[in-house]
Design brief:
By secondary structure, the chain is mainly beta. About 10% of the residues lie in helices and about 55% in strands. It is built from 1 helix and 8 strands. About 30% of the residues are buried.
Length: about 130
C-alpha cells in the first residue's frame, strides 16, 4: 500500500433520488461536478432491497425490503479504465426483520427507496 500526497478539495452533500442505484448515483454526481477522486465520508438512507458482497470470493448477501436502511456508508471514488468516476462503496445495511449485513455495495443492485444522503470529499493528488 502506497501513500499518495495530496489535499482535500470540495465537500459535496448529495441527495440520491428514488429508483436510482446508490453506486451509480454517486458516480453520476462526481461526473457532473468533475470529480475523479473522492472519499465517501458518510451516508444514510433507504433502499428497496440491499445487496452486498464480501470476502475474497465476493459472496453476495441480499436483504429483501420493503425497506432496507443504510446504517453506515464509506468508500472511495477513483477514475475507472474509461476515465469516468468509479465508486467503491462499503457499509452496513439493516433489513425490516432486524437482520444486519456488512460488505461492499454491489453496483446496480441497491436501488434507493425514498432518498440516500451521501457526503463525499474530493481528493486532489499533488504529485
Amino acid at each position: 500500500m502506497a501513500m499518495e500526497p495530496g489535499r482535500f478539495g470540495r465537500t459535496l452533500s448529495l441527495r440520491i433520488r428514488p429508483n436510482e442505484d446508490l453506486t451509480r448515483g454517486v458516480e453520476k454526481a462526481c461526473a457532473e461536478y468533475g470529480i475523479t477522486r473522492a472519499i465517501v465520508r458518510t451516508g444514510i438512507g433507504s433502499l428497496i432491497d440491499g445487496c452486498l458482497c464480501y470476502g475474497p470470493e465476493r459472496a453476495e448477501k441480499k436483504l429483501h425490503g420493503p425497506v432496507v436502511e443504510i446504517i453506515t456508508l464509506g468508500g472511495e471514488v477513483m477514475s475507472g479504465r474509461d476515465g469516468k468516476p468509479e465508486a467503491r462503496l462499503f457499509g452496513l445495511i439493516g433489513g425490516p426483520d432486524g437482520a444486519v449485513s456488512g460488505g461492499n455495495f454491489v453496483p446496480d443492485r441497491n436501488t434507493v427507496l425514498v432518498t440516500a444522503e451521501v457526503v463525499l470529499q474530493e481528493w486532489q493528488p499533488t504529485a
